[in-house]
Amino acid sequence: MQTSQQSRSSGAAIHRLYHQPDHIEPFSLTGSHFQILNNNGYPNTVTVTTSNQDASVGSVQTFNEQFFTLESSPAVEYPVYNSPFGGSVSSNSRSPFSPQESSQSCLSNLHHSPDKSYGSPFSNEVEQALKEVEMELLGPTSDFEDGSITSSFDNVNKYHKMLQMGISNLDVKQTLIAIAHAIDDGLKEEATALMDALQNRVSVTGEPIQRLGAYMLEGLKAKQLSSGSLIYKKLRCYEPNPKQLMTYMSVLYEICPYYKFAYTSANIAIKEAVQYDSHVHVIDFLIAQGSQWMQLIEDLAKRRGGPPRLRVTGVDDGDSSYARGGGLDLVGQRLAKHAEKHGVPFEFHAAAISGSEVEWGNLRVQPGEALAVNFPYMLHHMPDESVSTTNHRDRLIRLVKSLNPNIVTLLEQESNTNTSSFSKRFEEALDYYTAMFESIDTKLPKNIQMPRDDSQRISAEENCVARDMVNIVACEDTDRVERHEPLDKWKFRLQAAGFISLPLSYSVVTGVQEVLREFSECYRLWEKDGALVLGWKNRPMVTCSAWRKLE
């Protein structure tokens, strides 16, 4: 199977997860629309024929961009859980915790304050013991960043001392990091002992760090056994049926704002870039269900002087057809029907191929049309120079530049898991997904009530997020397809290809702010180098940036 066909995703497991469904009841979530990663399509064209505002440029208040470590609070013993990928959750799947509050203040919640470190609320004696262990692990002259352990563990006695502290006193996050370093150092027995000890401290129905720990622990076991690729493929083979998978994606789309943020910001930026053009062509490099363009069609229908003629080219490989229930022709029919309803002349072109296989001729660009290119959480799946000499990541960027687009929108997770060493990659993924799991544990929109032991919530996390984490932690070489890069690296790649940044307007900012109103106040929005960043507290999570060809 080619690398491009192995990419699933919270990148597509977040784009795949989250292309919003048509209508979601507050809460049986059936019949919703969202974006998926998989695809299979037919190269036919569906044509339906039916009969401006100035973008004010503004900036968003820039928050202090310090990175921080979140906090876990395991305070009780938790039952041993069955493997989260084994089909069952637990013999007793009820949460050992009191249900979280449906609404909680970011500022008043001391355990989740950005100023506090992630750690268990132990007694002073235990905290002091942890500090002593940390000093022994790191050494007095160790150089480490952001409060996370980055030094090599070169003495097995240090791991033994952690074990001697007792299982109930193990800090989940720091123990996971210790295991990663032990694996990196080839200390199999010590890593195994720590994993066995941590087994009773994690739970798929627990607090954020404990739910995350359950999946990370599986990834570490697979990494140590060099079975990551096999497990990752099995996770894809034993996924739920299409109806179930769509429900789980709908759940995640509703309780996380990351994709609503991305689609809203990209749509407004594109609408402004083509506001005076009579023929508009949108190329979506991960079309999935096509739901992102429903709102754009409605916005274009309201344009003063009448809507333009809209053509959408949807690129998608064969994977999404599973959850979609058919090929790309279904996407074209759905969008054509919506365009006809709103009086927008519309044409759809299906390019049923992987992004790494796309060539100029697949995109059918025509003279005289305004061109908008959208990269929705997909470029990080393209192998770069560290994986292949072909470097499809940069090749695709250069190909798009040759099309001379009016605008290119790039939506990506703000994480760095591409070329780092294993232990650094693990720590980055752990910090990122800690923030994600914490963010869906607070106030949920639309008065949704979803306790930690809710079966749909557990299934959504397992099928739509955990799969990506296993890929990051346990897979290597071409099998590792979740290769995120931070905004600065994307900026370097795009500028090297001949693009310049298009600062997002104040209209984009206000549109995203409106989306965020129904979510926790701990979500924060700020500007960086003309791009828009959505963070959980002070931790950047996703970015939207816009680009045009340098003249």
Account of the 3D structure:
The chain is an alpha/beta fold. Among the domains are: 156-238 and 418-482, no CATH class; 253-414 and 484-549, Rossmann fold (3-Layer(aba) Sandwich), CATH 3.40.50. It has 18 helices and 10 strands. Strands 1, 2, 3, 4, 5, 6, 7, 8, 9 and 10 form a 10-stranded mixed β-sheet that branches. Mean pLDDT is 75; it is low at 1-83, 86-105, 107-123 and 140-155.
What distinguishing features does this structure have?
GRAS protein, 551 residues, TF_GRAS, transcription regulation, Rossmann fold, disordered N terminus, 10 strands, transcription, alpha/beta, 39% helix
Question: Could you provide a short overview of the structure?
Answer:
With 551 residues, the chain is of the alpha/beta class. The chain contains 18 helices and 10 strands.
